[in-house]
Design a protein that fits this description.
The complex is a heterodimer of chains A (198) and B (157).
Chain A: H1 2-12, H2 21-60, H3 65-94, H4 101-144, H5 147-195
Chain B: H1 2-23, H2 26-43, H3 53-84, H4 94-104, H5 108-118, H6 123-130, H7 134-154
Helix pairs in contact in B: 1-2, 1-3, 1-4, 1-5, 2-3, 3-6, 5-7, 6-7
The chains are: A mainly alpha (198), B mainly alpha (157).
Domain RNA polymerase sigma-70 region (chain B): 8-74
Keywords (chain B): DNA-binding, Sigma factor, Transcription, Transcription regulation
Organism (chain B): Flavobacterium limicola
């Protein structure tokens, strides 16, 4: 019992400096800006690519159906990717800071698990559809070339896709998953602290 | 706005100590406490009096502490050199420092539980904040205090 009083007394003797409320509000503004900037930056690249493809459609007026399908596929998959990515951001908004720690941890684990699934699945789907779309899209232009050039263009394209699929994609997935896995493990371990004993 | 200012004045010290108990690093604790109040500011209009404002704020603060583990993992490398220049001693008394150090070494949820206990938060409230039964909280507090006492004894004081 004596120790009990001791601890409380010591605990409250910790020196503290309270920043002015203005400093806090300045931080709030900064925080809002940076999170918005991050979102815009990631989306800007994809939007720019979509716009570029649509401009090509508009200015070069493709004749083949395959070209049009290719364009639609590419734009669609980028839009879908964008949507999924933004939904990951929204998932954090669902996280309610005013839940109890136990509920909060469980939601955090659920979000991380979902994120892991989406990241690896989406990345694969993204590359497949984008590859397919590009092959279809290129066909019209390749058919205008001599057979040899057309063959060469497709060979280069397929080589690049193979490189992305067999080398870049798995590396990216492993990198992202290992990060998320450590986090999931940590949160799971903390959650177990609440379930263990008694 | 007036209301927020009052909350900020009333709860800053308590929230800061909770964060300090969690990380035992003055600067990180300061950041965590500020983040907590940013969330409080954003969410204040959603607060309904179902639970006391204290319980509500402590929930936000403790969840934010748990969330910071994610950032810790991300920034670990860049932050390492900072710790070497740990000359800044804010609490001069070694006893206080030792207490905070011991608490920060406990498992995460125990840090939160003991910090709230030392803040004189009622055990029923702690149970609501953490999401455990009251009986469970009582047992845990007892064990954590035993652990701390043991550490203080081993420390030679």
């Amino acid at each position: 019992m004596e120790n009990n009083i001791d601890f409380k007394d010591l605990w409250k003797k910790q020196s503290i400096s309270q920043p002015s409320i203005n400093e806090l509000l300045a931080k709030l503004k900064h925080f809002k800006k940076t999170s918005l900037r991050r979102l815009i930056l990631t989306n800007a690249m994809l939007i720019a690519t979509c716009v570029l493809i649509l401009l090509i459609w508009y200015y070069y007026q493709p004749q083949f159906l395959s070209t049009k399908i290719g364009i639609v596929l590419n734009v669609a998959i980028m839009a879908i990717y964008l949507l999924v990515y933004n939904r990951l951001f929204d998932a954090y908004k669902e996280l309610d800071n005013t839940d109890s720690n136990a509920e909060y941890l469980q939601k955090l684990i659920a979000i991380k698990t979902k994120q892991k699934f989406l990241q690896s699945k989406m990345l694969s789907i993204y590359f497949v559809v984008l590859g397919l779309g590009t092959c279809l899209y290129m066909y019209e232009y390749a058919s205008m070339m001599s057979f040899l050039w057309g063959f060469f263009v497709y060979a280069v394209l397929l080589f690049w896709m193979g490189f992305v699929w067999f080398y870049l994609r798995p590396r990216q997935i492993v990198k992202e998953n290992s990060k998320i896995d450590t986090l999931i493990d940590t949160f799971q371990r903390i959650n177990n602290q609440l379930e263990a004993d008694v | 706005m007036m209301e927020f200012e009052n909350i900020y004045k009333t709860y800053w010290n308590r929230i800061f100590r909770l964060c300090m108990g969690f990380v035992n690093d003055y600067d990180i604790a300061q950041d965590l406490a500020q983040e907590t109040f940013i969330i409080v500011w954003q969410k204040l209009n959603t607060f309904r009096n179902e639970s006391g404002i204290g319980t509500w704020i402590f929930r936000i603060a403790s969840n934010n502490c748990l969330r910071q583990i994610e950032k810790e993992k991300r920034f670990l490398k860049s932050e390492l050199p900072l710790h070497i220049t740990e000359e800044k001693q804010y609490s001069i008394e070694p006893q206080i420092q030792f207490l905070y150090k011991c608490i920060a070494e406990l498992p995460e949820t125990e840090r939160i539980i003991i910090s709230l206990e030392l803040e004189d938060v009622k055990q029923a409230e702690i149970a609501k904040i953490v999401g455990l039964s009251e009986a469970n909280v009582r047992v845990k507090i007892h064990r954590i205090k035993d652990k701390l006492t043991q550490k203080f004894q081993d420390h030679g004081k």
